[in-house]
Design a protein that fits this description.
Low-confidence stretches: none
Number of helices: 11
Largest sheet: 5 strands, mixed
Oligomer: single chain
Distance between the termini: 19 Å
Strand content: 15-25%
Structural class: alpha+beta
CATH topology of the largest domain: Beta Polymerase, domain 2
């Protein structure tokens, strides 16, 4: 059964209007889509679970399943002609709406080759789309009220896409790791671990009592994430995890997690805390078989 979050009044009116306009055009075009990016965190983590976020977001990111670039061009044209959007010059994935709102569109599906898309006409700008089809299959729903319901990446799907995005451009996307750390530290609540622990994950009751919630949440996030992956996505993801694990103290990923843990101000040994949570997450991923 698909999870549905009831989140009426959780988007500002102008962004809700923008979402509705995009949804209307996508449905007319027969385009399936899902919400991805930071608004997933804002709506589910903060709106539903009341976990405070440190960064706000002001755009909407959509993954759109498309068979080819001709379909993308038709969608882009319809957004401009009938939806009130303006495509940004030199940024073909960005569409402005009004004075201060915009959407980013990430095409995936048959339009891609080898888990990537190359933007026409020059095909020089390449974007990694690994994991998008997996996340689409495991999507949740968000009910925004007023009969507005959309597909959204789940929280484990959100982490998967964030990790691939960071891996694609690690020097530019430190914020992705900050978002992932927020989930790692809070998945005991956001993954509803307490209600699942005894029935689905009784083996984790043996984890150390000290810091149990963080460790159990991170381990189950890893399991939940791995279970939504196809074998090919799992292979690529596992390679990323093993690389960072082998890097040890030199892992750029772990360095960001340590700084995020330290910034809380109430953790005595931030590196040990970050490393313990990361190891539980990696273990959860690698001990879980992918779909298929």
């Amino acid at each position: 059964m698909t999870i549905c979050y009831n989140l009426s009044n959780n988007l500002p009116p102008e962004r809700l209007e923008m979402l509705v306009s995009f949804q209307r055009i996508a449905e007319v075009q027969g385009v399936q889509f899902l919400l991805v990016g930071a608004t997933v965190r804002q709506l589910i983590l903060t709106g539903h679970y009341k976990i405070e976020e440190r960064r706000k977001t002001y755009d909407l990111d959509f993954g759109v399943m498309l068979p080819g670039w001709d379909c993308y061009e038709r969608l882009a044209h319809a957004l401009e002609i009938s939806g009130g959007f303006r495509q940004t010059k030199h940024r073909p994935h960005e569409f402005r709406y009004g004075t201060s709102n915009w959407i980013d569109i990430i095409p995936f599906g048959a339009i891609g080759r080898d888990n990537a898309i190359a933007w026409p006409p020059e095909h020089a700008s390449v974007m990694n789309i690994a994991g998008y089809e997996d996340v689409f299959r495991a999507a949740v729903e968000i009910d925004l009220g007023q009969d507005i319901r959309i597909k959204s990446a789940s929280l484990p799907g959100y982490v998967l896409l964030k990790l691939f995005a960071w891996n694609d451009r690690p020097s530019e996307r430190t914020k992705d790791l900050q978002d992932i750390w927020l989930l790692l530290e809070n998945y005991y609540l956001a993954g509803e671990v307490e209600t699942r622990l005894h029935t689905e994950h009784p083996d984790l009751l043996e984890l150390p009592a000290e810091n149990f919630r963080n460790l159990a949440g991170a381990r189950i996030l890893g399991r939940d994430l791995a279970s939504l992956c196809s074998p090919s996505t799992y292979a690529a993801f596992s390679e990323l995890l093993e690389r960072e694990r082998k890097a040890g103290n030199g892992s750029r990923l772990l360095g960001v997690f340590e700084r995020e843990a330290e910034s809380r101000g109430d953790i005595n040994e931030p590196f040990e805390h970050a490393n313990a949570c990361w190891e539980e997450f990696v273990t959860g991923c690698l001990e879980t078989a992918p779909q298929g």
